Structures are given as structure tokens and as C-alpha cells.
What does this fold into?
Amino acid sequence: MIQLHQGGPDTSHPLAYSVHSAEDIRGVLDSIARGPQHQARAGGKIRVAVANPTPERMEVAARIAARGVPHDGPRGVWFTPSPPEQGKCAFLFPGAEIRRPRLGELAAQLGFAPPGDIQDTSDPLSEGRRVTEASTLLDHALQRLGVNPDARMGLSCGEWAALIAAGGVHDASRILDRNHVGLRCPDCVYLAVPRDAQALHAVLVHEGLQARVFISHRNSPLQSIACGPPPDVEVLRCALATQGIAATPLDVRSGFHCPAYEPYVDEALAFLGLRGRAPLQEVWSCVNARPFPEDPDGCTRLIRRSFTEPVDFDKTIRNMHAAGYRTFIDLGCGSLAQLIGEILACAPHVSTALAHHSRDGASSLQRAVLALWTSHRDVEPDALDKLSPSNPDPRTSRTCHEFQD
It folds into this structure.
């Protein structure tokens, strides 16, 4: 009745149990109590997984399983009482994130140079480059584990990273070159507002700011981002504060994704050498909430639009869900997984983040693998055994090898 997987020599040593029916739940609890000495046939409907199973955590797992309510990761335990709706899988590439993942050890394990960890605030591309390096590393690691996407998508500069990973740009060397600096941008700042875009627009109109401050990101029903000159954005922040809305200034200055960047677009495309080509795999754009076109000129035109038109992450995720996507893997510290939880709150889906600011990369990956396995996705709990540089996966995409080189 019970199948037990015990992890290999990684940092988490997970345990994962699978049973066939609700009547077998007592067996799950007994096995957790007795330890890893029982095995049985595979294919169970009910799944329990425990990361780094201490006695205390095993007891928590037993209590969670006894309640019979789905549990997705808090306290290092995952539990599903029945298989969730399956569907296609998407890798999500974040834009700038406040918290940075710890990936140095994982990069060394895979034979990669570690992602850059120092941000030059005078260079508007530095944070984007760091995030691109980190997310491309995690994309490579997932494929080595045998987890392959049906599509990729990215938020803001993460869209470039998604295109790079899918072979959708002719040459990524200038984007990834940490020494290639000097991109000109307008003097614009960003403000994260915990409201949807419609509510934020109403405030901009009320304050007479709609011609100078623009909505650059429609992220979710609970978050939008405004962009504009610092004095005007400060007026907006104060106006929101009088309504009891605490908006957060972001440590990014580029002017991307709003009309203020229009005079700089041609120069930026030439500076970055950004020319699109048909991606080798589907990539969704947050400009029009649809996949990138298959012709190079259409791809380049959409890249150009991304500099001056808002990011519509909310609509893109809804359209992907309507197209059959049910598994969303955040190749970052969880900002996109949180937004997806807000967008698809009551819709069937699984979203998990691959990295964490306070855990090493392998440990974070292990937790993501357990989340996917418990949700009946096509990955084994001990998949991290495949992450040795001497055990290359022939399915790994060519673009990831190009990034490694």
C-alpha cells in the first residue's frame, strides 16, 4: 500500500510516501512513526513528502496527513489527499527581486560560474543581468533533473531571459556581459502599489498625474507598479498614503515599460544587440499576453514594444491557464509564485519557487522537487542525484550550454 522514497546524498534527505486510497492513510501514519523500513507498490493517489525529516517534522507530517487537507510546504511538509488536475508546465523567469537566491554552491556543482551578486546601481541592466544568470542556471538545473517545460515566460527583463533560454535572440552576449554598461534611460523611478491596475489608474486621474506617471506593471489583483519622474511618483506615494495604502519604492531606475522610454528604444536595441528569432520552444510575452510569433521580425517587434508598453503579468497567466497550463515553476525566490497565487487563487494549479534567500540552491531545489512530486508531476523525490557535472543530461537545451560557455 505504501511506497517510500528516501533521498540520495543531498542536503535535505527527503522522505516521500505514496498510498492508493483514503483507507490507507493509517498506514502512512504508521510508516512515518516507524521509519523507512516499509515498501510497497507505486502509483498511490495520496502523497506525503518531508524535507530533512527530523522527528519533530515527521510528527507534523503525521498530523497534517491525519487532517486530510492539502498542505504545500510550510514546515517542510507537502501533502495531497488526491491527484490535482494535471496540465502543461511553464518555467517563469523573474524580473528584479528584492531577495537574492544563494546559488554559488549549486553553480559550482553544475560547473557554472556563480551568478553575479554585486549590483552597480548606476547601470540599469545590472540587476537584470544578475537575475538572468540566476534564472538560466535554475532552468538548466531543472532540465538536468528531468523536468522540462512546455513553455517559458518572464516578467520585465525576465522576458529576455526566457527568450535567451528558448533560443529566441540571435546574440545574448551584450545582455549578459557585466562590463557592457552605459545604457541611457530617462530619470524615472518605480512604485509598487498593493492595488489592481484599475484602482491605481483611478488615483492617477484623481491626482492629475496620468500624463506623467504611468502604470508599468499589471502584476495581479493585489499589485500594480507605477513609473514616472521622482517628484511625481512622490506625489502619488503621498496621495496613496492619505488613503491608508502603503506603496513601496523600488530600487530600480530605467523607465522600461512606459511611454517615457520611447525616445531611447532604438538606441537601446542597438546597444544590446537585441534581434529576435523564432524561439525553439514556446515563449509567452507579457506585452500582448500571447506566445511570441514564430517569425524573427515579429519577435523583434514584440521585443521593441516591451520597452514602452506595460507588463501585463495578470492577463498572461490567466491566458496561459486557459490554454491548459497548470504547473508554474518560479525560477527565483518566489515573487512570481506569490503573484500567481493571487491571480489563480481559486483555479486549479500548482506553483512553486526554485530558490530561497536563506537556503542554499540544492536545498531549495529539493523542496521544489518534493512539491512537484507530491502534486503528481513527472519527477522523482530523489531527482537531485542527477545533478553531478559528470552525469550530463542529453536533453539539456543547447542554449543552456551556450550560457555555461
User: Anything to note?
Assistant: Residues 1-12, 36-42, 390-405 have pLDDT under 50 and may be disordered. Residues 32 and 58 are 6 Å apart (CA to CA). The first helix runs from residue 25 to 34. The longest strand covers residues 214-220.
